[in-house]
Amino acid sequence: MKNILLISLPAVATKMLVKRVGEASAKQGDDIKITTLAESEGFERMDEFDATLLSPHLRFHVGKYGRLDDKPNMRVGIIDSVTYGNLDGEAVLETISQLLLFP
User: Fold this and answer.
1) How far apart are alpha carbons 51 and 76 in whole angstroms?
2) What whole-number distance in Å separates Cα of residue 2 and Cα of residue 40?
3) Which of 13, 48, 54, 80 reaches 20 to 30 Å from 90, CA-CA?
4) pLDDT, tens digit, for every residue of 49-87?
């Protein structure tokens, strides 16, 4: 099982997106678990997960928590705003797959 962290603001849209990613994952036979955390706690705990996704609105806040390129084994992706807005679970699952294949 791959453990994925989604850092986002608590919102109904985030819960729906996680649900749709889970559905897409089950459909494809992937075994992933997505944990959602708020910004400050999420950035502190990133190293506990196989990969981290940021909701689109947090891409501007990354610098507050240090440089991610200082951690070469960290797998971090940003969900694009169209995918997030459309709650496209399959597209997010593709982003996760790319992160896990190409650190």
Assistant:
1) 6
2) 22
3) 48
4) 998 899 998 877 766 655 555 665 678 888 999 999 999
**Phi-psi group of 87: left, alpha or beta (phi > 0 → left; psi -120 to 50 → alpha; rest → beta):** left
15, amino acid identity:
K
* Burial (Cβ within 10 Å: 0-12, 13-18, ≥19) of residue 100: middle
Architecture, CATH, for domain 2-101: 3-Layer(aba) Sandwich (3.40)
CA distance 101 to 55: 20
User: At a CB cut-off of 8 Å and minimum separation 6, what does 50 contact?
Assistant: 2, 3, 4, 75, 100
HSE at residue 100, side-chain half, CA atoms within 13 A, is 16
pTM for the whole structure: 0.85
Residue boundaries of the structural domains of the chain: 2-101
